[in-house]
Amino acid sequence: MLNVLKKSEHCVKLCAALEKSENYQKFIKYRDKVLALGNDSLEKTIAIAVSLCLVCAVLVSFGAVALKPLQAYNKALDMKQNILDVAGLLEDGKDIDAAFAEKIEAKIVNLETGEYVDGINAEEYDQRKAAKDPAQSVVIPKEKDIAHIRVKAKLAKVFLVKEGNAIKSIILPVNGYGLWSTLYGFLSIDPDGQTVQSINFYDQAETPGLGGEVVNPKWRALWKGKKIYAETDQPSFDKGTIEEADIGEPALALIKGVVDNDKPGSQYQVDGLAGATLTSTGVTNLVRYWTSKEGFARYLSKVRTVKGAKS
Ligand SMILES: Cc1cc2nc3c(=O)[nH]c(=O)nc-3n(C[C@H](O)[C@H](O)[C@H](O)COP(=O)(O)O)c2cc1C
Predict the structure, then answer these.
(1) Do 133 and 224 share a domain, yes or no?
(2) The model's pTM
(3) pLDDT in tens, 97-116
(4) Whose CA is nearest to atom 5 of ligand 1?
């Protein structure tokens, strides 16, 4: 309270000093002169227009600066909400910050080695920003860039859903080009590093009703239980270590039409989006890219060898 009073006292002094200043007096004189002019005078019209622009510019600048922290907070909150959603932990009315802090841990992974990286604040690390920084990213060779993203950050941010000490889900950030836009989303996987729990896209600009159906909960539900890697690709899996040669290529793909669950191989297939083959191909490619050795394959192979992740 005392501080507020002191501040207002300070303001009063500042205003008094301003009123006494020569420039302020000149401004007041000019203002009175302009206001005394007729309404159809050119000088008055220009002066009023310029003043209005100045006032608006000050208001907009003030708004932009004052609202920046709130915008940053809302962006972070939205991201947490998406992560909770893909983890199946989003509950109506529950505090998002609290639920996130209680259940989810962010970790940094070196994509080349598949190992966790210590010494970086995972909460603050922004993978999308890092991908745009040449020092923190790598250019993807054209022949390997099936997701059409051109660059990727060397370090990725994964999210682990925990219950006590046990890991319940591994959430991977994914992105890739569809038809009109780069789709950004999360892929949630069982601790076996192989079985899909869910997928969601939080940033995309495909056509609503066509490619935009990637956000449709009914379509998203089709992903549950699907397998990423063909089982035959991992002969060393049961030995407890996956050898480099056995990490394998992802087999999961969107197909044209509806998956026949009675057919062999259906565990690697998801229904394509009707009338949106190009977005569907983009989704296949981005999932395959991020689960390949270019993406998280090495990390997931380590998780899979321990048959349940440990943080
Ligand atoms: C206005 C308009 C918007 C479209 N938006 C998409 C889209 O978001 N994703 C997509 O894959 N195809 C979209 N298409 C359709 C593609 O051009 C293409 O025809 C389609 O992907 C082929 O899919 P289909 O073989 O399943 O019919 C759009 C077409 C039109 C005319």
Answers:
(1) yes
(2) 0.81
(3) 999 999 999 999 999 999 99
(4) 207
